[in-house]
Design brief:
Blueprint: E1 9-11, H1 22-28, E2 37-41, E3 44-47, E4 50-52, E5 59-62, E6 69-73, E7 86-88, E8 94-96, E9 99-102, E10 114-116, E11 121-124, E12 127-129, E13 135-137, E14 141-145, E15 148-151, E16 156-158, E17 161-165, E18 168-171, E19 180-185, E20 195-199, E21 202-205, E22 218-223, E23 230-233, E24 236-237
Parallel strand pairs: 1-2, 2-5, 3-6, 4-7, 5-8, 6-9, 7-10, 8-11, 9-12, 10-13, 11-14, 12-15, 13-16, 14-17, 15-18, 16-19, 17-20, 18-21, 19-22, 20-23, 21-24
């Protein structure tokens, strides 16, 4: 059930809004705005790469549901941050009730669905889906609640100070020879305000991984920086996780 919000602009593929693409709606938002700017995206599959620039603060994107309003892209490559289907550099970003995909596939390597580099970001009731580097929590303070996040290698990664609360976190079947790493946190110095907290979440396997989970190593994470910090607390951890817990 989507929350009722007063939208500044409406995006609809069928032409019943002001815009037919999310990119156009983001471009319409004033720069350096102090109040919230709400973009309502009606149900549909939007094949586009959306970038919210540094001067685009306080933008909210709200959809009709994470399985109904879907942003999808398929970029991949070594420049991880440039592959995101939705990339956010502005502060105060909020996403609610949308799905964000990168469909490049496991064989394409780094292929981000959502990258957030702005501060004070909130992602609520969203679906974030890819394989490697699904969610790039790059920097700033970030909060995720009641989200579904799935991937294979380092699929929640970055240097942000991020809290994940009541989320469904699912490892999926990786390429042959790969191990699943749920997190790759990259805190780089001792006094940095950086780390992931996974609180009251469920950590499980997708249906394609479940039959072979005994032959695929899945870890809670690996260090991506000298002071990498991840805390998993009061969460359900299913038997897909290697007894070691963490990769070296």
């Amino acid at each position: 059930q989507a929350l009722k919000v007063r939208a500044d602009v409406v995006v609809a593929k069928d032409g019943t809004g002001q815009f037919t693409t999310v990119t156009e709606a983001v471009a319409s938002a004033p720069e350096n705005i102090k109040k919230r700017y709400v973009i309502y995206v009606k149900k549909g599959v939007y094949e586009e790469i959306v970038n919210i620039g540094k001067r685009k603060d306080n933008i909210t994107i709200v959809g009709d549901g994470r399985d109904l309003t879907i942003l999808t892209g398929s970029l991949s490559g070594n420049h991880t941050s440039h592959t995101a289907t939705l990339g956010v550099d502005g502060n105060g970003f909020t996403a609610q009730d949308i799905g964000i995909q990168n469909t490049a596939g496991a064989e394409k390597g780094q292929a981000v669905a959502l990258r957030i580099s702005g501060d004070r970001s909130v992602v609520y009731r969203c679906r974030v889906e890819a394989f490697q580097d699904t969610l790039y929590a790059h920097s700033g303070r970030q909060f995720y609640r009641e989200c579904y996040i799935t991937g294979t290698v380092d699929f929640i990664c970055g240097e942000a100070a991020a809290v994940f609360q009541q989320c469904q976190i699912e490892a999926r079947k990786p390429m042959k020879g790969q191990s699943n790493m749920i997190t790759a946190q990259s805190r780089s110095y001792k006094t940095q305000n950086s780390g992931f907290t996974i609180y009251k979440c469920n950590i499980t396997a997708t249906p394609d991984l479940t039959p072979v989970k005994g032959t695929v190593k899945t870890f809670l994470g690996r260090p991506w920086g000298p002071y990498s910090t991840v805390v998993v607390m009061k969460s359900f951890i299913d038997d897909l996780i290697d007894p070691a817990g963490w990769a070296p």
